[in-house]
Amino acid sequence: MKYYTYFESPLKQLLLVSDGQSLMGLDFNIHRFGLEIQPDWQKAASAAPFPRVKQQLAAYFAGELQTFDLPLAMEGTPFQRLVWEKLQAIPYGKTISYRELARRINHPASIRAVGGANARNPISIIVPCHRVIGSDGSLTGYGGGIEAKAALLKFEAGEHKWTKRITKD
Questions:
Q1: Domain parsing of the chain, residue ranges
Q2: Is 38 considered catalytic here?
């Protein structure tokens, strides 16, 4: 059984998905790889680990939390899971290139595949795919939109505080 609820972030409403034990998805629900609520999913704000996820997201957006400590269950290929594992090692406030991420997983020629896995990250923000940028420093693709990616990076660099939503629902 899967459960879902929403979290109102300064960026936009986020969709949270759980199996009743672990977080399986955190999504802006606006991109081509976005999660879609299925008929057999139950809306349940109190399902585990939603209360903990919401508490940690609130602390993150308040500038009080830099590292999440949550049970995660990400469904994907072994290659995707390897990329997502390495994403979690990118420190708060830092960025790396897709090329560097490919090097870190010992697949230096797989830059496009790394980009594809990054795009399919099922748990945005917590698994920080927003911290991956182009080799030239450009902000490329983000499921929540480039504006959200830029805002997250500025926030983590201490250059931005949340006062209102940056995008419309």
A1: 3-61, 78-156
A2: no
Q: Which of 135, 53, 72 is nearest to 98 (CA)?
A: 135
Active-site residue, from 90, 129, 153, 166: 129
- The model's pLDDT over 32-86, given as tens digits with 9 standing for 90+, comes to 566 788 899 999 999 999 999 999 999 999 999 999 999 999 999 999 999 999 9
Please check whether residue 18 is in contact with residue 3, taking contact to mean a CB–CB distance below 8 angstroms. yes
Q: How many CB atoms lie within 10 A of CB 108?
A: 12
The burial of 20, by beta-carbon neighbours within 10 Å (0-12 exposed, 13-18 middle, 19 or more buried), is given as middle
Q: Structure tokens of 112?
A: 């496009």
Copy the structure tokens of residue 51. 């209360």
pTM above 0.85, yes or no: yes
Is the CB of residue 12 less than 8 Å from the CB of residue 28? Answer: yes
- Cα–Cα distance for residue pair 104/142, rounded to 1 Å: 21
Region label for 125, one of left (φ > 0), alpha (ψ between -120 and 50) or beta (otherwise): left
- In CATH, the architecture of 78-156 is Orthogonal Bundle (1.10)
Which residues, other chains included, contact 81 with Cβ-Cβ below 8 Å and sequence gap of 6+?
Answer: 74
